[in-house]
Amino acid sequence: QAVMGVQVVVTLLAASLMQKLAPHCSFARWLLCNGSLYRYKHPSDEELCALAGKQRPKSKRDRRVNGVTEDKPLSVPRDINLQLDTSPITAVDALVLRYFLEYQWFVDFAVYASAVYVFSEGYFCLVSPSRETNLGVLWCLLTVGFCLKVFFVVMRHYFRSEEGGERSVCLSFAFLFLLLAMVALVVREEYLEFGLEAGLAAVTSSLEPILKPRGWQWTLPLAKLAFKLGLVALSSFLGACLTFPGLRLAQTHLDALRMAADRPLTQLLLHLGFVAPVLVVLMWVRPLTRDFLLQAPLGKQTVQLLSDSSYDTLRLWAIVALSLLRLLGTRHHLQAYLGLAERWVRHLRRQAGRIPARDIQQKV
């Protein structure tokens, strides 16, 4: 009872701190507005006119006095020597971004959920309660639920696009990941170590004594099939949601490598962050990792380097290390994304013709 009381108090304290400190102290806002990221400011009409050798555009009042009523859009040559000014990103700049408030709330909630989970695990390791529920797991489940909600909001934005190209790409990748998920479920546990069959068998053995006296044991195979179909549908949905973020991450990775051409340590960090997810996934391929570490060949004999429990712990720590590694590379990827404006201006100089000034300002 005491442990449950402590967990409830910590949960309420975390919720209160998250509500009170969010306007003043936010980890999500600090990631964007800590002064290390800078954006490119769009040029004004006066600056574009000066670069194009034109006079400053008259105001509407001056045009009305001179008898000029038509309002022609300002256009400048594409090959002007346009140099963009930079400015550190502030909270005011971030507030105008779409979905910034959702991003801030979700990241802050994930941070508090991680803190509550670490605290709960520490108490369970020290006190070893037998009947209490770990509320940290509930916070983690809520984080996963809110993450799916964010994915749904982003997917809805893609489907509401006027062009319609994003919708077709998302549907194509959804069917692709649907096929891959079905193939993954067919692979036996000796190759892909999901632990799905063992978990379903444990649930079936627990429900069978309850359903058999009522004559409902025939529902167990249907429940297994429905659960697997649900996993396939969830995998397809996540694959469709992560299509455009994955493509953008690949592009920003290349741009970040170009920006860090003279910093080999930063390039090493970026390469490790890009390859690390594949290495972590391979830890669930049984012949490549578990069988090799538990029965490592040494001449004509085999040596056990790790036990089963140690290997499971190693995989969990690998996920934590992957998260920290990706967090360290976040600043470089964000700055590479902000550098798209400068790259677009360099590409604009190599073109001929004229372009409206408003298009330049909107693009930057």
Automatic annotation (TrEMBL):
Gene label: Tmem161
Similarity comment: Belongs to the TMEM161 family.
Signal peptide: 1-18
Protein's organism: Certhia familiaris (Eurasian treecreeper)
Residues annotated as transmembrane: 105-124, 136-156, 168-187, 225-247, 268-285
Protein name: Transmembrane protein 161A
Annotated Gene Ontology cellular component terms: membrane
Domain of life: Eukaryota
Membrane topology: Multi-pass membrane protein
Keywords tagged on the record: Glycoprotein, Membrane, Signal, Transmembrane, Transmembrane helix
Organism lineage string: Eukaryota, Metazoa, Chordata, Craniata, Vertebrata
Entries under PANTHER family matching the protein: RE42071P (PTHR13624), TRANSMEMBRANE PROTEIN 161A (PTHR13624:SF4)
Matches recorded under Pfam families: Tmemb_161AB
Family matches, as InterPro entries: Transmembrane_161A/B (IPR019395)
Subcellular location: Membrane
